[in-house]
Design goal:
By secondary structure, the chain is mainly alpha-helical. Helix content is 74%, strand content 6%. The protein is built from ten helices and two strands, in the order αααααααααββα. The chain has helices spanning 3-29, 32-58, 73-101, 109-137, 140-171, 175-179, 181-193, 195-208, 215-229, 265-283; strands at 234-242, 249-256. It has a two-stranded antiparallel sheet. It is elongated, with a radius of gyration of 25 Å.
């Protein structure tokens, strides 16, 4: 089992455990915020199972069914993941608004606080392990999971602060105010973290649609190409780049002067190899 697979298995198991514990805690406490946390984690788990399959597909070479390989499955699963989390968040936001309109939500704050502390510690631990593995593997699949766990830990930390506030209000006889803590928390969590699944989905959609990546990447590949071609007289240099997932796909056309000295098939092939080696050294795979 390679580093990427280990990271994805860890993420899947952790999401299932936290999601199920959160579901039990939500039933016991009546907290919509904990139910939202359960929804996030169970959604992570569902997509993690598919992500493991995608990770194995990416190891396959191209074939007659997929002549350019399986690299497009990587942005596809990240797009699905982003949209799924976005859907959970929007449903929770609507439920929070309904709860506020009905006068808030009573919560068993002691049990809720215990869950929030557990989820915060677990989320931070998983995020630290994934960060270390992401640096080793440079995997966009792990990067996407890492972003999810950072958001997850931040949400759980917000739960800790909110339930401490609710306990303080209850002890000071402010039971009515305490009922509003949970739905307000749900709304704040959704609004503050909504950009994460949106960015994930937008970036993945760009990969699926074969949109050019950041201009600095294209400029870098063009610069490396010009360096590899040296003093070869160029009329035009056309560089087209897409990044489906972790793979950089570059199509480079170099149009040289018709009277370039020493230019023949063998020389052209040497230049081609020099360009490939130069670009691959920086932008592989």
């Amino acid at each position: 089992m390679n580093g990427e697979t280990r990271a994805l298995v860890l993420s899947a198991i952790a999401a299932a455990v936290v999601g199920l514990v959160a579901l039990a805690a939500a039933i016991a406490t009546g907290s919509g915020a904990i139910l939202l946390d359960s929804g996030f984690n169970l959604a992570y788990f569902a997509t993690a199972l598919v992500t493991l399959r995608v990770a194995r597909l990416l190891e396959r070479p191209d074939d007659h069914r997929y002549p350019f390989g399986y690299m497009q499955f990587e942005p596809l699963i990240n797009l699905v993941k982003g949209l799924l989390i976005l859907g959970v968040a929007l449903i929770a936001l609507v439920n929070a608004a309904v709860s506020l309109a009905r006068g808030g939500q009573a919560v068993q704050t002691g049990t809720a606080l215990a869950y929030a502390l557990f989820a915060t510690g677990g989320g931070l631990a998983v995020a630290m392990v994934l960060r270390r593995l992401a640096r080793r593997t440079r995997s966009p699949l792990i990067d996407a999971d890492l972003g999810n766990w950072i958001v997850n830990a931040a949400i759980s930390g917000g739960l800790v602060a909110a339930f401490l506030l609710a306990i303080a209000l209850e002890r000071n006889g402010q039971n009515v105010a305490a009922r509003y803590v949970d739905p307000i928390l749900v709304g704040l969590v959704v609004l503050l973290t909504l950009s994460v699944p949106v960015r994930t989905a937008a970036r993945s959609l760009s990969g699926l649609l074969q949109r050019a990546p950041d201009g600095t990447i294209v400029a870098s590949i063009e610069s490396l190409t010009r360096g590899a071609l040296g003093e070869l007289p160029l009329r035009h240099l056309h560089v087209r780049v897409v990044q489906p997932g972790r793979t950089t796909y570059a199509l480079i056309h170099a149009l040289v002067d018709a009277h370039a000295p020493g230019m023949n098939v063998a020389a052209a092939d040497r230049y081609r190899r020099a360009v490939i080696d130069s670009v691959a050294a920086v932008h592989a795979p």
